[in-house]
Structure formats: structure tokens, C-alpha cells
Design a protein that fits this description.
The chain has 5 helices and 9 strands. The chain is α/β, with parallel strands linked by helices and 179 residues long. The protein has one domain (5-36, 78-175): Rossmann fold, CATH 3.40.50. The chain has a 9-stranded mixed sheet with strand order 5-6-4-3-2-7-8-1-9, sandwiched between helices. The radius of gyration is 15 Å and the shape is globular.
């Protein structure tokens, strides 16, 4: 039986990644998966770093990369997703109490292996906390429409309150025995 899956969406820069980091810190549970951070040079965003909760990292996209995979001014290195992000998701299923995927967006969707690993994680009994982009996309629409999915739109006004709401929900799933 699939577990409970919680997805965050919201405008860029509203604090979705920070919210996830705060929930993970509050829960004090073994987590797996990955998160992304902006790479800034002289105050300007030039790329995105993918980092696992175990500390492995790689540059997922950068303005100076050469790649057929582009999102705006960023070229995407899908090998970083396939070699770091995907294994982090798959290894989290049996080992972690919570799978974190930040994020499911245009850059990540270039990787077919990423999409497969997301579906495997969603079918597992391990709860998932993720970020999903708002725009329509066939794969993301499929993920959003799952009956075991709960969506939360993060705003500047509600993001602090969501830390407690999400933490309680995840603790409830884990103590309620959905395993």
C-alpha cells in the first residue's frame, strides 16, 4: 500500500525549500532524497546545486554549461540527476522514514530515470514530502492527481505555520502505522 505523499507548490522564492529543511529539522528522522539550492555569483543566480541529505552534491544546471537540455538561461546536466538524485530517492525508500524530493520541475523532468524513481517512491509505503512546479505537464499532472496526494500551496503568509502542520501530518502517518 502506498504511503501518504505531501506536495508543496508555490511561487518561486516563496520559501518552499526552506520550509522542507525546517520540517526535516523539526522531525529529527532519517530522511533521504535530495534538495536544490541556488548558486549565486555576485548576487546573481547562475545555476542550481543538487544535494542529497547524505551530503553528496553536483551542479544540476548552470548558465555556463553546454547541454541540449535548457530551461531559460540554464543548461541542465541530467547526469547529475541520474547519478546523484535518482539513487538518493531509490535508496531512501528502504532506509529512510521520509523521502524528500525538492523539486519536481522542468530541469528534473529531462531525466527519464528521475520520473521512474518518483513513481517508485510514490508507490512505496515511505511517506514523501516534495516540491512540485505549478505549471501543467503530463507527468506532473499524473503525480498531482494521485488519490494519496495532499497538496499545499506555500505563501509568505502560511509558510511558517506549515512547518507544524506538515510535521504533525508526517509524524501521524509514521505513528499510525501506514507501513
Amino acid at each position: 500500500m502506498a504511503g501518504v505523499n505531501l506536495l508543496l507548490t508555490g511561487r518561486p522564492g516563496v520559501g518552499k525549500t526552506t520550509l522542507i529543511e525546517r520540517v526535516v529539522k523539526t522531525l529529527k528522522l532519517p530522511v533521504g532524497g535530495f534538495y536544490t539550492h541556488e548558486i549565486r555569483e555576485k548576487g546573481v543566480r547562475v545555476g542550481f546545486l543538487l544535494r542529497t541529505w547524505e551530503g553528496k552534491s553536483g551542479i544540476l544546471s548552470h548558465v555556463e554549461f553546454q547541454s541540449p537540455f535548457r530551461v531559460g538561461k540554464y543548461c541542465v546536466d541530467i547526469s547529475v540527476m541520474d547519478k546523484i538524485g535518482v539513487p538518493a530517492i531509490l535508496e531512501a525508500i528502504p532506509k529512510a522514514k521520509l523521502i524528500v524530493i525538492d523539486e519536481m520541475g522542468r530541469m528534473e523532468l529531462f531525466s527519464e530515470e528521475f520520473k521512474k524513481s518518483v513513481l517508485v517512491a510514490l508507490e512505496s509505503s515511505t511517506p514523501l514530502l516534495g516540491v512540485i512546479q505549478e505549471r501543467a505537464h503530463p507527468f506532473l499532472n499524473q503525480v498531482r492527481s494521485r488519490p494519496d496526494m495532499q497538496m499545499f500551496t506555500v505563501t509568505l503568509e502560511n509558510r511558517d505555520g506549515l512547518v507544524g502542520i506538515l510535521s504533525k501530518q508526517i509524524q501521524g502517518v509514521l505513528s499510525g502505522g501506514l507501513s
